[in-house]
User: Fold this.
Amino acid sequence: MNATYDFDIRLLVPIVHKGPVYITTNNVEAKVNMDMNVVTRNGKKYVYLGKMKINLDIKGYIAEYGLNNTELSRLNEVISNFIGNNQQEVISVFKPAIEEAVVKRIILLSNNIVKHFTLNELFPDRE
Assistant:
Protein backbone atom coordinates (compact mmCIF):
# COMPACT_ATOMS: atom_id res chain seq x y z
CA MET A 1 0.00 0.00 0.00
CA ASN A 2 1.40 3.38 -0.93
CA ALA A 3 0.00 6.43 0.82
CA THR A 4 0.87 9.91 1.99
CA TYR A 5 1.14 10.86 5.63
CA ASP A 6 0.59 14.34 7.02
CA PHE A 7 1.80 14.94 10.58
CA ASP A 8 1.04 18.03 12.62
CA ILE A 9 2.42 17.23 16.07
CA ARG A 10 2.65 19.73 18.91
CA LEU A 11 4.74 18.43 21.78
CA LEU A 12 7.18 21.04 23.00
CA VAL A 13 7.68 22.48 19.55
CA PRO A 14 5.41 22.03 16.54
CA ILE A 15 6.46 19.34 14.05
CA VAL A 16 4.75 19.43 10.68
CA HIS A 17 5.70 17.19 7.79
CA LYS A 18 4.06 15.52 4.82
CA GLY A 19 5.54 12.73 2.73
CA PRO A 20 5.09 9.28 1.19
CA VAL A 21 4.84 6.06 3.17
CA TYR A 22 5.20 2.57 1.68
CA ILE A 23 3.62 -0.26 3.67
CA THR A 24 4.31 -3.89 2.82
CA THR A 25 2.87 -7.02 4.40
CA ASN A 26 3.45 -10.63 3.46
CA ASN A 27 1.54 -12.48 6.15
CA VAL A 28 -2.18 -11.94 5.52
CA GLU A 29 -5.06 -14.39 5.68
CA ALA A 30 -8.54 -13.62 4.35
CA LYS A 31 -11.98 -15.05 5.00
CA VAL A 32 -14.33 -14.19 2.16
CA ASN A 33 -18.10 -14.41 1.72
CA MET A 34 -19.47 -13.53 -1.69
CA ASP A 35 -22.81 -13.50 -3.43
CA MET A 36 -22.89 -14.31 -7.12
CA ASN A 37 -25.98 -13.50 -9.14
CA VAL A 38 -27.25 -14.87 -12.43
CA VAL A 39 -28.87 -12.55 -14.95
CA THR A 40 -30.39 -13.23 -18.35
CA ARG A 41 -29.28 -10.98 -21.18
CA ASN A 42 -30.29 -11.59 -24.81
CA GLY A 43 -31.56 -15.04 -23.87
CA LYS A 44 -28.24 -16.09 -22.33
CA LYS A 45 -27.42 -16.46 -18.65
CA TYR A 46 -24.50 -14.52 -17.24
CA VAL A 47 -23.04 -14.50 -13.74
CA TYR A 48 -21.67 -11.54 -11.82
CA LEU A 49 -20.33 -10.89 -8.36
CA GLY A 50 -23.06 -9.00 -6.51
CA LYS A 51 -21.47 -8.35 -3.14
CA MET A 52 -18.56 -9.52 -1.11
CA LYS A 53 -17.40 -9.32 2.49
CA ILE A 54 -13.79 -9.88 3.43
CA ASN A 55 -12.15 -10.22 6.82
CA LEU A 56 -8.39 -9.72 6.62
CA ASP A 57 -6.09 -11.09 9.29
CA ILE A 58 -2.99 -8.90 8.95
CA LYS A 59 -0.20 -10.24 11.15
CA GLY A 60 2.20 -7.32 10.74
CA TYR A 61 3.81 -4.98 8.23
CA ILE A 62 6.93 -3.09 7.27
CA ALA A 63 6.62 0.67 6.78
CA GLU A 64 9.12 2.80 4.87
CA TYR A 65 8.93 6.57 4.74
CA GLY A 66 10.13 8.89 2.02
CA LEU A 67 12.40 10.77 4.42
CA ASN A 68 15.89 11.10 2.99
CA ASN A 69 17.04 14.43 4.40
CA THR A 70 19.45 14.19 7.33
CA GLU A 71 17.47 16.87 9.18
CA LEU A 72 14.48 14.55 9.09
CA SER A 73 16.33 11.46 10.32
CA ARG A 74 15.17 12.06 13.92
CA LEU A 75 11.57 12.49 12.73
CA ASN A 76 11.92 9.26 10.75
CA GLU A 77 13.14 7.49 13.89
CA VAL A 78 10.25 8.85 15.99
CA ILE A 79 7.64 7.91 13.37
CA SER A 80 9.16 4.46 12.83
CA ASN A 81 9.26 3.74 16.56
CA PHE A 82 5.68 4.90 17.10
CA ILE A 83 4.26 3.01 14.12
CA GLY A 84 6.48 -0.02 14.70
CA ASN A 85 5.67 -0.33 18.40
CA ASN A 86 1.92 0.08 17.85
CA GLN A 87 1.34 -2.17 14.85
CA GLN A 88 -1.86 -3.79 16.12
CA GLU A 89 -3.42 -0.39 16.85
CA VAL A 90 -2.42 0.91 13.42
CA ILE A 91 -3.76 -2.24 11.75
CA SER A 92 -7.11 -1.93 13.56
CA VAL A 93 -7.47 1.67 12.33
CA PHE A 94 -6.60 0.98 8.68
CA LYS A 95 -8.08 -2.52 8.33
CA PRO A 96 -11.68 -1.45 7.46
CA ALA A 97 -10.46 0.92 4.73
CA ILE A 98 -8.11 -1.72 3.31
CA GLU A 99 -10.87 -4.34 3.32
CA GLU A 100 -13.24 -1.95 1.53
CA ALA A 101 -10.64 -1.13 -1.12
CA VAL A 102 -9.80 -4.82 -1.67
CA VAL A 103 -13.50 -5.72 -2.03
CA LYS A 104 -14.12 -2.94 -4.56
CA ARG A 105 -11.08 -3.96 -6.60
CA ILE A 106 -11.93 -7.68 -6.61
CA ILE A 107 -15.56 -7.03 -7.58
CA LEU A 108 -14.47 -4.72 -10.41
CA LEU A 109 -11.85 -7.12 -11.76
CA SER A 110 -14.04 -10.20 -11.39
CA ASN A 111 -17.03 -8.66 -13.11
CA ASN A 112 -14.86 -7.32 -15.92
CA ILE A 113 -13.64 -10.87 -16.53
CA VAL A 114 -16.91 -12.83 -16.21
CA LYS A 115 -19.01 -10.41 -18.27
CA HIS A 116 -17.46 -11.88 -21.43
CA PHE A 117 -18.60 -15.43 -20.70
CA THR A 118 -22.01 -17.04 -20.33
CA LEU A 119 -22.87 -19.15 -17.30
CA ASN A 120 -22.52 -22.30 -19.42
CA GLU A 121 -19.06 -21.27 -20.59
CA LEU A 122 -17.90 -20.65 -17.03
CA PHE A 123 -19.58 -23.71 -15.52
CA PRO A 124 -20.11 -26.25 -18.33
CA ASP A 125 -21.09 -29.09 -15.97
CA ARG A 126 -23.92 -27.12 -14.30
CA GLU A 127 -27.39 -26.32 -15.51
Q: What stands out?
A: The helical segments are 73-85, 87-114, 119-122. The first strand starts at residue 2 and ends at 10. The first helix runs from residue 73 to 85. The chain has one domain: 2-122.
